[in-house]
Amino acid sequence: MAGALAVSLRTRTHDDLDVLYRISADLDTWEERNSREPSPLTRAKFDARLARADADDSSEKTVAFVIDAGGTAVGSASLSDFDRFAHHAEAGIALLPEARGRGIGTAAIRQLVEFGFVRCNLRRIHLQAIASNVGALRAYEKAGFVVEGRLREHAWVRGVYEDIVLMGILRSEQVATSLPQMPSAAPGQRSRASTEGSR
Ligand SMILES: CC(C)(COP(=O)(O)OP(=O)(O)OC[C@H]1O[C@@H](n2cnc3c(N)ncnc32)[C@H](O)[C@@H]1OP(=O)(O)O)[C@@H](O)C(=O)NCCC(=O)NCCS
Questions:
Q1: Is the CB of 22 under 6 A from ligand 1?
Q2: In ligand 1, which atom is closest to the CA atom of 33?
Q3: In 3D, which of 183, 50, 35 has the Cα closest to residue 119?
């Protein structure tokens, strides 16, 4: 992949499962992606987790997209922990190693934020990142997130304690994106959102 790529958020299909499993099982970015203790993730466990998530029809359900770049699945982006009273949710994103550093993450986060504010009627979206994850922090900053706090030495990351950076964006702060179209679909349908992935 190189140059300008059409980046979109779309619904997962069966063909995406290998890519999504690769991302979820990647021990190299385990601590960046979640706070659980690192451990090898089997395909069976991954499949079972997906099946449980699919079976959950509660309103608290995670909104999960596949990130598509130029027609290829390269990552996942989600909104979770919805608070329907205070209208906020937490954002998460991860790309395959070969898709990183090409502007795809920034484009996907912008679309996720747009979806959260416009389609899910969120008022605030928040996230957290390990302080050394400079690529993530920069991508979030470019998408309009601001640093709201810091949990000092909160994470154990590959042999050292690291700070966790808390970031958030309010709907009133959202920078207008140049989206030609909004994500058009709820989970279960294909989204048509698309922007260029090059920086
Ligand atoms: C974090 C992630 C989603 C960012 O997406 P990305 O497509 O790699 O980021 P982009 O290419 O859009 O780059 C965004 C900015 O960060 C910078 N950047 C990216 N990777 C960087 C790195 N390793 N070191 C320094 N800067 C980096 C880019 O230069 C760009 O800034 P610029 O436009 O000012 O030059 C992606 O790297 C990823 O999936 N990482 C592994 C999982 C992860 O960490 N998830 C986030 C958990 S909080």
A1: no
A2: 47
A3: 183
Note the pLDDT tens digit of each residue in 141-185.
999 999 999 999 999 999 999 999 999 999 999 865 544 444 544
* CA 145 – ligand 1 centroid, Å: 14
Mutation probe of ligand 1 site: the residue of 106, 110, 140, 163 with most atoms within 8 A of C-beta:
106
Q: Is the C-beta atom of 104 inside 6 A of ligand 1?
A: yes
Cβ count within 10 A of residue 37: 8
pTM beyond 0.70, yes or no: yes
Please give the domain boundaries of the chain with CATH numbers for all domains: 6-196 (3.40.630.30)
> What confidence tens digit (pLDDT) does each residue in 95-105 have?
999 999 999 99
**Sheet (strand 146-157) strand order:** 146-157, 160-170, 124-130, 88-95, 72-83, 63-69, 6-10, 195-196
The span from the CA of 71 to the CA of 90, in Å, is: 27
Give 123: exposed, middle or buried? Use CB within 10 Å, 0-12, 13-18, 19+: middle
